[in-house]
Specification:
By secondary structure, the protein is mainly beta. The protein has no helices and 11 strands. The structure holds FE2/S2 (inorganic) cluster (FES).
């Protein structure tokens, strides 16, 4: 199967993600299967690799289940690093100053696409 197949189909419907909520999908990037965390902000969706820069663990505590702090940060379930949902930068915790790896996403026709 061509590696580019995942770019030919939407990742998820926008409505499948609660506003101000998260979703997780598996995608093929550069031939590797990767888990992606997506965050919906109204009509916009931002995405990052589901890999914490601290120790390389997944950010979710169960597949697709992500923690959000009261001040609106994504919190890594492993050791509690907090990430800005604007730009994926680590604002507190063991990898402060580092950042999640952004994956560009687009919303078109009510669907979320890579790119
Ligand atoms: S792996 Fe995320 S805080 Fe340690």
């Amino acid at each position: 199967m061509p590696v580019s197949d995942t770019t030919a189909a939407p990742l998820i419907a926008l409505d499948a993600i609660a506003d101000a909520g998260f979703a997780e999908v598996e995608v093929t990037l550069d031939g590797d299967s990767e888990s992606l965390v997506m965050y919906r902000d109204g009509d916009d969706v931002r995405g990052w690799l589901n890999i914490c820069p601290h120790a390389g663990r997944r950010l979710d505590w169960a597949p697709g289940q992500f923690l959000k702090s009261r001040d609106g940060h994504l919190v890594c379930a492993a050791h509690g690093a907090s990430f800005s949902l604007d730009d994926g930068s680590c604002v507190a915790g063991p990898c402060k100053g580092d950042r999640l790896r952004a994956v560009p996403l687009q919303v078109r026709d009510g669907q979320v696409w890579l790119g």
